[in-house]
Design brief:
Elements: H1 2-17, H2 21-55, H3 57-93, H4 97-131, H5 140-157, H6 161-176, H7 181-203, H8 213-237, H9 256-288, H10 292-308, H11 310-328, H12 332-360, H13 372-387, H14 389-404, H15 408-433, H16 438-450
Helix pairs in contact: 2-3, 2-7, 2-10, 2-11, 3-4, 3-5, 3-6, 3-9, 3-10, 3-11, 4-5, 4-6, 5-8, 6-8, 7-8, 9-15, 10-13, 11-12, 11-14, 12-13, 12-14, 13-16, 15-16
Length: about 450
């Protein structure tokens, strides 16, 4: 009897956490293009970072700070699209193309609003925001150089914010309807453009002047426009395939009831993404008070960690799409089963990638032309991230599963409220009221972050 009970328990656990061949085929059909897109994008970002790092540490730090500010804008765009994205996946799962069209209009209007606000803030307060990261110990000349490089980079990057926002409206809607190849293709074309132009414009190749940081910004802006052109033009030339864009711009109509529902569910998501992004930039600012080298170390570490976290974070999109479509079709048991299986799969993947990051962390910083102190800091930051990657695998999938079910206020509590009321005060106390080395207390902070969900 005990043997039968054990066999039954094992069978139940297996059915809960492990899917059949058809399940994994569906997962990887959806996930593989996203992984390829994000992997190539992050690899190119790593190469870009290395190129800028070859020019000098102040240039690398200036670009890193400017990108922290742009990161807030990107997360604000992502946040405005997340609410209607829940409805898009469910409308598509129910075969309602008109509903998908309405949600896409809502996305476009809100993305334009975020763009306008972002440009105003960066133009009016860009230099002051960059200066917040330059309060730590360091040489005054280096501090002034970082500010100059960061300001120049940010001003040029403003030209790429609009195509970025609109591209994400289209790409997000396509993914929510199960189309991942086109967003991947557009993104790959963009990153290839970025990589080639970076090499040409940063170092001054094939007759172009060596523009350094400005060249990196110009290359990124050009890549944004390439991605925008490919995805938007292709979708509108194949409206028979993408039925939800038929008549998209003939009217600005969005049913009032739907708009109210999107705002109710989407506002917590927007506030969550915005406050979380602001929280992360605030964390970087808190860390930066320990010295200018911290910014460079964090930049090397974060760029490298993003490459190792590609599969982990791509899995969130799989959860959002597969669970959202199951909920849209009214299959609650299927949605629960899919969530548990994707969480288990993500854990298994993280064991592999976390081990790889820990093993390579001591060697990656030597690719950069920087100081030994910066290399040491970057190594310790990456090691801390590798140790807790397993926890992030669970919390990331759980976040997207809860969000797919429309429980956006819960995700707001677990994410942004925790960040601002626990995570940031905890880090501030460690930074300002203890003598712990920066590389030590960031491990404690990583543990707190991983346990937030």
């Amino acid at each position: 009897m005990e043997q039968n009970a054990s066999a039954g328990t094992f069978s139940k656990i297996r059915r809960t956490f492990i899917g059949d061949r058809g399940f994994y085929a569906a997962v990887f059909t959806l996930l593989l293009p996203i992984i390829v897109q994000n992997a190539i994008s992050n690899f190119v970002n790593l190469l870009d970072n290395i190129m800028i790092g070859q020019v000098g540490t102040p240039q690398m730090s200036g670009v890193a700070i400017a990108n922290q500010l742009i990161f807030v804008f990107m997360l604000a765009v992502f946040g405005t699209l997340s609410g209607p994205g829940i409805f898009s996946a469910q409308f598509y799962g129910a075969g309602d193309y008109e509903g998908v069209r309405y949600t896409m209009r809502f996305k476009l209007l809100t993305a334009v609003g975020v763009f306008v606000v972002g440009v105003i803030v960066f133009l009016a307060f860009g230099d002051q925001l960059i200066s917040l990261y330059l309060t730590g110990e360091g040489d005054d000349a280096e501090r002034a150089a970082i500010l100059a490089f960061g300001s120049s980079y940010l001003r040029i990057m403003l030209w790429g914010l609009a195509p970025f926002a609109v591209s994400h409206v289209y790409a997000g809607t396509l993914r929510e309807t199960g189309e991942t190849i086109l967003p991947m293709t557009a993104s790959l074309a963009g990153v290839f453009t970025n990589l080639c132009l970076n090499y040409v414009l940063i170092f001054g190749k094939i007759g172009f002047p060596a523009l350094g940081v400005d060249g990196a910004a110009i290359a990124t802006v050009a890549a944004r426009f390439v991605e925008f052109a490919i995805i938007v033009v292709y979708v509108h030339r194949h409206q028979g395939r993408f039925l939800f864009v038929n008549g998209l711009y003939r009217s600005a109509r969005i049913p009032r009831r739907l708009a109210v529902s999107i705002v109710k569910k989407g506002t917590p998501l927007l506030m969550n993404e915005l406050l979380w992004a602001l929280g992360m930039t605030t964390m970087t600012q808190i860390f930066s008070t320990r010295g200018l080298n911290v910014i460079a170390g964090l930049n090397i570490a974060s760029t490298s960690m993003n490459l190792f976290n590609v599969v982990v974070f791509s899995m969130g999109m799989a959860v959002a799409v597969m669970v959202g479509q199951a909920l849209g079709a009214g299959d609650i048991p299927g949605a629960k089963r899919t969530t548990w299986r994707l969480i288990f799969l993500n854990i298994c993947i993280c064991v592999v990638f976390g081990s790889a990051l820990a093993a390579s962390a001591p060697y990656i910083p030597y690719i950069y032309n920087t100081t030994e102190e910066v290399r040491m800091l970057a190594t310790r930051f990456m090691t801390a991230s590798a140790v807790f990657m397993l926890f992030n695998a669970v919390t990331h999938c759980a976040y997207f599963a809860i969000r797919s079910g429309g429980r956006t206020f819960v995700t707001f509590l677990f994410d942004s409220v925790y960040t601002w009321f626990v995570f940031i005060p905890y880090s501030y106390v460690l930074t300002h009221f203890t003598s712990l080395d920066i590389s030590c207390f960031t491990r404690y902070v990583t543990l707190q972050t991983s346990s937030s969900a």
